[in-house]
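ASSEMBLY PREDICTION REQUEST
Request ID: AP-0331
Submitted by: J.K., bench scientist
Number of chains: two
Total residues: 822
Priority: normal
Notes: Please return the full assembly, not individual chains.
Input sequences:
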Amino acid sequence: MGKHPLLSEKRGEKQLLLGNEAIVRGALEAGVNMITCYPGTPSSEVVDTFRRIGGDGRYKMEYSVNEKVAMEVACGAALAGAMSLVTMKHVGLNVAADPLFTTAYTGLPGGLVVLSADDPGCHSSQNEQDNRGYARMAHLPCFEPASAEEARAMTRAAFALARDLQQPVLLRTTTRVSHMRGAVTFHTLPQAAQTVAFEREPMRYVPLPAVARKRHAALNNTMQRAQEIADQSPFNTETSHGNTKLGIIASGVARDYLADALVSGGWTDKVDLLELGMTWPLPEKKLTAFLTSHSRILVLEEGANLLERDVRALCQRIAADVSIEGKDEILTDMGEYSRSLVMQRLAKWFSCPCPLNPTPTPRTDLPGRPPNLCPGCSHRSVYYAARQVFGDDAIYSSDIGCYTLGVVPPMRMADFLFCMGSSISGGSGFSEISDKTVVSFIGDSTFFHSGMTGLANAVFNKHKLLLIILDNGTTAMTGHQPNPGMLQEALGEDCSHLDIEQIVRAFGVTQCKKVSSYNVRGLIKVMSEFKDLPGIRVLIAQEPCVLYARRTLGKRQPNVAEVIEQNEDTRRCLKELACPAFYMNGDDVAVDQNLCSGCMVCLQVAPKSFKAVKREGGRA
Amino acid sequence: MSQDKRLRIFFTGVGGQGTLTATNLLARTALMANFEVVAGEVHGMAQRGGVVESVLLLGGWRSPKLDHGEADLILGFEPLETLRALPYLRQGGTVFSSSDMLPPLSVSLGVAKYPSLEAIQSEVQKIASQYTFLPCRELGIKAGSVQSGNTVLLAAACASGILPISLEMLAQGIRTFLPEKHQASNLEALRLAEAYLKPSAA
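STATUS: Completed
Returned structure:
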């Protein structure tokens, strides 16, 4: 097999790369030694790309069980001298925050870059928190690329800075930047970085209170140096048209929308720009010069009003006589910015009419295509069984994964959800107060992520909970990344399989049963049996993700379902199982054989209505 | 490249159709032809059986997402999705769309109604100055694979002259960027699109 194009050694070569791939290239150009992660949209392609390209022995990498662990492994490696990268989505950094705050005190000689891929607009997340806040709170220099080329260049610069300062550095993208494609010009590809020899220094690396107090001062000194570097950074640039009145300060992806808005409005020469790519610490000298040479300033930043607040504070400190504007009713702290929103904001600021044409109102009467569990998804049959057994009498505590889609009717199998792993502990708390049976659903990867601790707590504190572990043998939602529950043959030699049932039993759970997710009768029997029992009951419903089984394990069912009788049961199956392979052919229920996976759950739900027939050619 | 050559293209289709692959093929072809290229897409939850949208910007635009009324061209890989994406088209823009329907679940289950192709076309006509519907899926199957139906649409757009990319450049892109086993069917799809648009040349 030839070398992957991302490992090209040709300096000056130009490739069209995804933002996340450009981060990989930047890390390679810096000489990254170690990569850890927990997958999460929109960050996943970074580590998946490292896995795919192999790397010729340049680096070690792992899918860790959660973000805190990923952070700690990366910190350990960086302390041992490796140039390290840890990647995660924004909410993952909440999980990983504990080690991060303290390693910022101790410092990490090898250099650590933390990728936080934020998700304004909640494309695939439960909130749109702005992780630039972590840079301020934990004292991390921060880079915010706005193009694929910048993603490469800033990643490379972030590593150089992390090693120079011996300090964790935050690389913060958003969904649009991580999933943007653009031309990237390659810099030289050196060998992997030399590791920095570890020198035993407990009075630095063991943060006893006396040590921590000293290290806080050391951190402040380092950040002062970082501030000087930010003032010199080529990523913080001023574009001047000699305007003494109007100046715009912009950071992150807002710079892209601003650039297009200025061109569209014909406003390019109307304002001076200060664009920030290295956004923390603030380049105070550059900002001071800009603030004191303009009388009206507009701050553009997607997300929270962090830069705006800092600029206002700086103005107060330097007593700058300047009007500052930022967030308003057009550009809020919610959702994503866009070219036309920025145009509207600029027009208001310029007090001129906005040169945008009215646009048609989108139709709301078109049939939608909401995300749904796939045909043959092993979660669907478990949810069907649970609805048969518990109906609306139970409270359903859900978790994060494809199976969150169980919230969609007719399953309606999610009443609440906080975050990764919360199904068990949140469910435990709920059942302490409520009289209702609480049924918690958690996937295999999420169980290893942070479900295990919740289960240990539930056993320890004698909670009452019916836990259903939806074990599909992979991290399905984010693209089938490995987790400890994956089969040994799929994991290969580098990882060890951990058995969920053994773990559950080792925690002291005695009421534990494992059933195939496609065995509807078996599922109903165990759920009915568990329904009124006290204490912790765990049902492991096991069957590989249907996409993973087909694509990776090469398993494909030889048969498909066919409707043989139209009756009340057939219609009930359509309504209650609602498999996407069903469709109405006039008044008749039919099965689309191209979509049918052959799980044969419908044959169990309505035995007289369906039969298995041999699949004819076609895909599925 | 001057600003009047700037172009914004909105791609829309259904998860699994290969909308992102088609976007990427056109984007890489455009870069090979020395155009300034930015493309944007959304991964993750949005792809589980849902609508897949992406954008391709040529000539210097930087914003990785489009607002309503901004697209010069819509490439719709499924007619209902073309209709849904229509607000993104600027007045007087161009639409190329597949005419082969993939009914969403609500329609399959008889809960919702799929608009007729005539109704879709008449909505398109209200905004677009130029539009073409092609049986992409059918032509793709004829060319050797359903997925090559996406190339039918790309080829139709290239042949129309609305894109600064010629059919020959697209063919070069297919030969350069697609895996060898998919090249023949996609080159055939390109030929079929050309023949479909100009029956006399067939």
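REVIEWER COMMENTS: The first strand of chain B starts at residue 7 and ends at 14.
SIGN-OFF: pending second reviewer
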